Amino acid sequence: MFKTAAVFSDHCVLQRNKNIDVFGWCDSDVTVTVTLSKDGKVLAENTALSKAKGKESKWIVTLPALKEETGCELKVVCGEYSKTFTDVALGEVWLCGGQSNMEFELQNCKESAEALADPNDPNVRFYYTNKIGWIDDWFYKAEENTCWSKWNSDARKAWSAVGYFFGKKLAEELGCTVGLLGCNWGGTSCSAWMHESYLNTDVELNTYIEEQIEATKGKSIEEQCREYDEYIKRDAEWNKRAQEVYAVRPDIEWNAIQEIVGKNEWPGPKSCKNPYRPCGLYQTMLSRVSPYTMKGVIWYQGESDDHKPNMYAKLFTRMIDNWRTDWNDDQLPFIFVQLTVNRYKADKDFKHWCLIREAQEKVSKTVANTYMTVLMDEGAFNDIHPKQKKIVGERLEAIAMKTQYEGKASNEETFNPTLTSSVSKDGKMILTFDNATDGFITKEKPAELANLIELEKIQGNKKIDAMVDGKWTGFEVQDKDGNWYGASAEFKGNTIEVSAKGVIPVAARYNWYNYCPVTVYNKAGLPVAPFRTNRNEKLVTEHAAIQEVMTVNTK
Q1: Is 103 exposed, middle or buried (CB count within 10 Å of its CB: 0-12, 13-18, 19+)?
Q2: DSSP 358-403
């Protein structure tokens, strides 16, 4: 057996200015020659001997770094095997990873009509990694049918919307082809995208594996597969009936539709075949495109780890280390989205998303070449899938340009304001921020405020009116007894002084809600990142009931 990885196809984009790894699989020792040419002229060529270490061993041939190019041919030869890929480009390659908000398709986003109607080729190409969670004969047949697509293909409708807007803007600014590797799956934990060795060597992180082992104890692989297959049939029937209800009542609440259709069982039984299992998609998706040479990763995930928010920083850091090791690049850039505001009517505000956001900021400050963009202001009330995706892609792209391509935008135009220091003085908490050289602006959000008040009153919070106190700022101060009070705010350059009448503050926090109005921005229009000054305080939080499945197109 010898084959080239499916990620190499006609129209593929190879990373410019870096050594290019071309790879595939074999079951015996092989000598492989790879040639990249244009118009009959060889641009690069190399031959390597690969020794098989098992039934499906990976072979790799490395070509030297080349500048941007289009219209090339890539040829792979091994004995009688010979395969040539045409219309190959050299440009910038980024992997689009995460869960449903990265998976969210271009055809379903708010900007889809305008984007898809554009006849101009954005110079972006897309490869969607084979999206199957279990390796069997069907897996390999499906993988053989995957390929890179261009703008003139109907496949563009199913591209990641965030990825597309990121790539389009990047291609415009760099003047070269941008290739996007779609490697995402709605509802997935970080743990699904990691090798088990990065989980089982840590007591906390190993709980993901231990829970899987406990749930499948005593069940054979055949039993687990049968159990999961039976769930898939039930889930298909459930979705069919649910769509009929949504067609008549598009705004029906999740709990109400389950009363009519029956309980939704997503994400299904813990099983060796369930794609949400720990380490599963690492095996069936990520490892199938690793180590395809690329510039970096854009990432949008965190929702599905909100039941273990206090270990998310460690989990995400380990995942980044895992990927960097696989790609043999200790500086592989990760540019990621901090979770936006979200809450369903039936959920209490357990503030577990606040802890995920705090963990994400910690990663950006402690792991080299990682960067966070704040999307707090782009959430959707009662919907975990905000439909506007252009602003997400373009905020990620701005950071990529600034940090990876020496873009000329200022820090204030690129990065969100984040807290750098705080001090309690004269009955106030004085907060200092970076990326706010020119000060701040505030925006009124009456609809979002009304939503918050409604949510809190549903849950019996009688203090919400006092917290708002006629004007929402998002700031709160804490007294020595641990009580929190809504605070007023004075803006002075890059500092904000917050206070509450009769309170000597010992701590402060901003937008410490799963859902709330986002009202404070720097002058460039980027929202202030949420924070708490007493982040050393260990918080134990509950997990909100799943109000909707965290995958796309549920309605």
Answers
A1: buried
A2: HHHHHHHHHSTTEEEEE-GGG-BTTBSS-S--HHHHHHHHHHHHHH
User: Of 264, 279, 265, 310, whose CA–CA distance to 212 is shortest?
Assistant: 279
267: helix, strand or coil: coil
Only one residue has tokens 């050289």, namely 437
Q: Where on the phi/psi map is residue 543: left (φ > 0), alpha (ψ -120 to 50), or beta?
A: beta
By the 8 A CB rule, do 410 and 492 touch? no
Structure tokens at 167: 């790539």
DSSP class of residue 180?
A: E
Reading the chain (555 residues) residue by residue, the pLDDT tens digits are: 999 999 999 999 999 999 999 999 999 999 999 999 999 999 999 999 999 988 899 999 999 999 999 999 999 999 999 999 999 999 999 999 999 999 999 999 999 999 999 999 999 999 999 999 999 999 999 999 999 999 999 999 999 999 999 999 999 999 999 999 999 999 999 999 999 999 999 999 999 999 999 999 999 999 999 999 999 999 999 999 999 999 999 989 888 999 999 999 999 999 999 999 999 999 999 999 999 999 999 999 999 999 999 999 999 999 999 999 999 999 999 999 999 999 988 888 999 999 999 999 999 999 999 999 999 999 988 889 999 999 999 999 999 999 999 999 999 999 999 999 999 999 999 999 999 999 999 999 999 999 998 888 888 887 777 666 667 999 999 999 999 999 999 999 999 999 999 999 999 999 999 999 999 999 999 999 999 999 888 777 777 766 667 665 444
Tokens of 172: 């415009």
Report in angstroms the alpha-carbon separations of 395 from 167, 303, 370, 412: 12, 20, 14, 12
Q: What are the φ/ψ torsions at residue 63 (nearest 5 degrees)?
A: -100, 150
Closest CA to 422 of 432, 414, 410, 407: 432
Q: Is 84 helix (H, G, I), strand (E, B) or coil?
A: strand
SS (H, E, C) 466-519: HHHCCCCCCEEEECCCCCEEECEEEEECCEEEEECCCCCCCEEEECCCCCCCCC
Q: Which residues pair with 57 in a beta bridge?
A: 26
Residue 178, SS3? strand
DSSP conformation class of 530 = P
Residue 222, H or E segment? helix 221-248
Q: Are 167 and 3 in contact (CB under 8 A)?
A: no
